[in-house]
Design a protein that fits this description.
The structure is a homodimer. By secondary structure, the first copy, chain A, is an alpha/beta fold. In chain A, about 50% of the residues lie in helices and about 10% in strands. Chain A has helices at about 5-10, 15-25, 35-50, 85-95, 95-105, 145-165, 180-190, 205-225, 230-240, 240-255, 265-275, 295-300, 320-335, 340-345; strands at about 60-65, 110-115, 125-130, 170-175, 260, 285. In chain A, strands 3-2-1-4-5-6 form a 6-stranded parallel β-sheet, with helices on both faces.
């Protein structure tokens, strides 16, 4: 059995009884019932995901997958393609947004070259999982072969399995100039919605470039005719290596009951591929922030996930995940560390 | 000149030029312009508040003011009044929600007895600022005399001044059974909106008790006839000692250019008193979370403040402020620690 098939086979829904058990403990704590809102929801979900009635978090890792996109040649991004490797080097030196926010939240960042069109040499700290030097231009044909797409997914699964363990939580992140284009293409394919309704301005293109971007995505759908009952076909034809890596990371994590905090728009496209392959993965996902990118909401609704960080972020890299991991951790600490009414000698509700 | 008059006199609006200078630095950092959304806004505001072009945060303090309310006798709360001192003891032992979330965010909690109807003896760590043993029942007459209200405000100002310094940020919090009742009364008075439109279910009362709570607040407004052009009159007649203490803390902080992160519904009632006394205080306030309590939004809109944590919280104590302080700090770190395009050798936008 392939690594992918094995992961898919190992993923099961969470046990709702664990949610009830966690709720019972939350209701004993010195606070009005449900008054810590979504922090309580996070604690319950962590109990159910891990199967541990006193779950702890002792290792937080964000995987930032980097890959290039042939479709960048169409002028769909505000930044030139060489920014992908430049930003990878910035990540490794600790100067990017994700580095700052991860340090703030006590999260380790692992930078993964899964498909950058650049030869990195002597890059201490870079995880080498390169499957190809950038995807092919989706306006003209498939981004990847089916085999390449599966290799990228399996690279993500490998990373998930290698780092899994008790008390581990993952976050997803990405870097890849032009990667909102394949992400919008993927959600347009699955949702059947008009491309313009699920396409945003990415890093900040002007109106003319935006209209062009929409046309490029429409062309990509017409040329490739992805089969949405076969998510790997959608991924191979429209996707990116980093999107595939993220899909794999999520599948691998869910197969080992490791929670995954998913970043914004592009990461959610990866999550959507994982979900279309195995809907039960949604139980293991925390949707972090509400991206400014249109289309993000459509994907989250499809997976019935509700984000919880609303800071107008649209950087990617895993920045929203870094903030969200800290909030999930806050929920777990509430669950583990708060005194009960009994312990604290506090009177309970009377009406 | 009284301590209150001195504070009011010292508060000035922030200098918008500082916002522009901070924006110029943010636009040099290795990210698409504005892509870190509200985190960038927080950094700019911190520069303007402190007047420091490289502002740091090295001390985070949440002041949790505790006070009792005569109106609790009317049965407006789900919990009995003795819970106020019980929770104060829980705070001092570190077992409450605010303790857990403050530890998570590296924030110190200072618990202030400003008006609890209980004699605390041998309570290490409790800050004694008791002005009175609970307010009087607002359904029957004023909660406090004008002099008592000013004493409470000045207790808050004192704490703000004693702890002020470079790199300091404050958060507000409170504990006081029945304190959503005076908070709703205050916002109903200033806004002129029907009481039911600005009154919520507090710690979780049933529909019958809710209707009763609305009537109690309507009676309090009719009996007291607060003069809204005199915010101290509104505070004295309808308020609470902890609401007054929070108003004072905010005034004192603004007078020393210390930023204040304001918690939820009750804290915002305190902020509103400060704002009605001196509208410029709004420049020094970060509105943390969007409370489940109706009326909260009305107050924030009146002050033109936009909250940024949306976790369905309704506990108070300073819990939303603890989470929000960490996000403000994240914004400051982005501003200080990210590499610039020049430093990192990253190409800039082309279209």
């Amino acid at each position: 059995m392939s690594r992918l098939d094995e992961a898919l086979k190992s993923i099961a829904s969470i046990d709702p009884e664990l949610l009830d058990k966690a709720q019972a403990r939350l209701d004993m704590l010195t606070k009005p019932k449900d008054s810590l809102g979504r922090l309580e929801e996070f604690a319950k979900k962590m109990v159910a995901i891990t199967g541990n009635l006193t779950p702890g978090i002792n290792k937080k890792i964000i995987f930032t997958f980097a890959g290039d996109h042939g479709v960048a040649d169409e002028g769909v991004s505000a930044f030139p393609k060489e920014v992908t490797p430049q930003m990878v080097l910035n990540f490794l030196r600790g100067g990017a947004g994700i580095n700052v926010l991860a340090r703030h939240a006590g999260v380790e960042v692992k930078v993964v070259d899964i498909g950058v069109d650049y030869d990195f040499t002597d890059c201490a700290g870079l995880i080498q999982k390169k499957v190809m030097k950038g995807t092919r231009n989706i306006r003209k044909g498939p981004a990847m072969t089916r085999d390449e797409a599966i290799k990228c997914i399996e690279a993500g699964i490998e990373l998930a399995l290698e780092n899994a363990g008790e008390g581990v939580i993952y976050g997803t992140g990405e870097m890849g100039i032009a990667n909102t284009t394949p992400s919008s293409a993927i959600i347009a394919a699955f949702s059947g919605q008009p491309v313009a309704d699920v396409t945003g301005k990415g890093t900040g293109i002007d109106d003319k470039s935006y209209n062009h971007k929409v046309r490029v995505i429409e062309d990509a759908l017409n040329v490739n005719k992805p089969n949405i009952s076969d998510p790997i076909d959608v991924l191979a034809k429209l996707g990116g290596t980093e999107i595939a890596g993220i899909a794999g990371l999520i599948l691998g994590a869910a197969s080992r009951r490791v929670p995954v905090v998913v970043d914004g728009f592009i990461s959610t496209a990866g999550a959507l591929i994982a979900y279309e392959l195995k809907p039960q993965v949604r139980d293991y996902i925390f949707a972090s922030h509400n991206s400014v990118e249109r289309g993000h909401k459509v994907m989250l609704e499809r997976m019935r996930l509700r984000p919880f960080v609303d800071l107008d972020l649209r950087l990617g890299e895993g920045t929203g995940a870094a903030i969200a991991i800290s909030l999930v951790e806050a929920g777990v600490k509430i669950y583990n560390e708060m005194a009960t009414f009994g312990d604290a000698g506090v009177s309970e509700k009377t009406i």
